[in-house]
Structures are given as C-alpha cells and as structure tokens.
Amino acid sequence: MDHRNAIRRSLGAAAAVFMLLACGCDSKPAESTETVDAQDSVMRVTGELLIDDSDDEPSEYPVTINDTVIRKRPEKVICLSSSLTEIICELGFGDSLIGRGSYCSYPESVAALTDYGKPASPDFEAIKNAAPDLVVTATSVSGKDVTALSESGIAVLYIPSPRSLDEYGRIYSALGMVYEGLFDGEKTGNDAFSAVKNALAGCGLSLGNFVYVTEGGAVAGGDTFESSVLSLFGHNIAENASGYSFDKSLLKDEQPDIIVLNSDVSKEELLGDEVFGSLDAVTAGKIISVSNSYFESPSGRITALADELGAGEKVESDEA
Known about the structure:
13 strands; 2 domains; single chain
C-alpha cells in the first residue's frame, strides 16, 4: 500500500504526530504491565515511533499508545470519558461499546449502555466481570487497578484531555489506530479531525483581539485548549501567559475587542469585577457567552462553537 511506504519514509514525522498524547495533562499514565517485542511494529506516543526495519511489510498491529499495547482490534470496549465516547462513535466504532462512564450521554444510543461509574472512581470489579478487551479513559488510573485489570486480560488506554488543537487531532488518530491499526486507523482519524477543524477554521468568524474569561475571573493563556481553539477566530491578548496565570490588570492597557465568557460566569459578575468592569469591551456589552463544555469535553460537536460565537457577535452588533 502506498501509504505504508510513505510511513516507512517519514518515521520522524509520524513520531512527532503522536508524542503529545502522553503529555496532555500533568497526570501521568499508569505504567503498562505488558512488554513489547522489539521486532513488533508499534506506535509509541511517548516520543519514538518503532517500526520493524526488516524487508517484510510492517503490520497493522500491534500498536502502542501511551504504553498500552493494542494487539488486535478490540471487540468489546468500555469508555469512561464522555468526549472519548463521542469520538469513538464519530469514527464509526460505536458498536464496540459495551459500557460507559456516568457522564457519557451523547450520542443518545450510549444511554442504553451499562454505567460503570464516574471516571475518577469507576467500579473496577464490575468492569472485570464484564470482561471487555479494552477500557478507555481520560482520567489517570492507578497502577494497582491497571495491574488488576491486566491480570484479567483487560487493557487500559489512558488518553488525557488535549491542551491544543494538535493534541486534539492526535486523539482522533490514536483512536483510529486502536480500531483499524497503524495505517488505515491513522488515516481514518486524520480525516475525521480534518473535517472538524475545517468546519471551525472555514466559518469566516472574526473576534479581533479577545480574551477568554472563565470561573473565578481567570483568563486563559496561550497554552490552554480554549486559547488554541478560539485563536482560529482572532488573537488572544493573553497568549504569552501560561495556564490561567494572566494578570488581568494588564487588560486596562491592552483593551480587548471582545470578551469571550464561560457561560457558567454571569455577565453581572463580569461587570461587578473591578478590572473587567472597567474595560471598554465590557461597558460596551462586547461579551459573548459560550458553553465551557466545548473545551472541557471536546468532540465533533465543537463545530457548534462557531455558530454560538457567531450568534453572540450578531447580537452584540445589533445592540450596538
């Protein structure tokens, strides 16, 4: 296959594609109890792509993602995290799901699946009894629980939440490879994510100079997922800050064109804040409230963010 030969020729680029799933958040994935044969064709997302260098064609499996070895396509999967559940269904692999986490509610079909508890405290005994091939989660699982499940023949794949659009795209690619192997799976994931990103980037929306304000009056810095997504539509004034450490008093000089506001925070709270309440954008009503769920649990539904931002921008323009 042509794409297999292309992968052979560009191992370095492929390695870069999958490095960051392992560093998507500060929590570290539990160590795998499996060992990897050095001759296997495997995908490592911890910094190195290993493909058998022999004359034989490299195989679709096994694939290693964040230290979890996937030796064949899983037929029975329990996904504990809502965003990952949605992406699995987006990619067309929803029929493999036999269980979900308590917060998984979309698409509607997953409601009929057995609930194995909250991602931070799932019912591992019930999971063992269900005997899935694979458990997928965005919440780190302790080494003790990984070992217990592994001894029952159950692999655990930990994929942390993304902090950038690139990391987000790698989640699609990784889940594609779980189900279709190294070559076809990567293409499936890339194609699905490209459709999502193109829908966002191609909407024609312009926010100008903005900041995203979330709970507690915190402003999203340039290395946050919120900033990465919203920067498709404008320039984040807080781009040089890390996390949510931006000094909001600097906004008095910077004066953003628009405040994008976590909808869990009321506009009244913003007006009542000593700094935010004095900004020209706030006094002029240039505030667009959006659901933070787009950033907390991203899936293909993130494309609706552009509609929400556009509707908010139109309201502000009409009021002006």
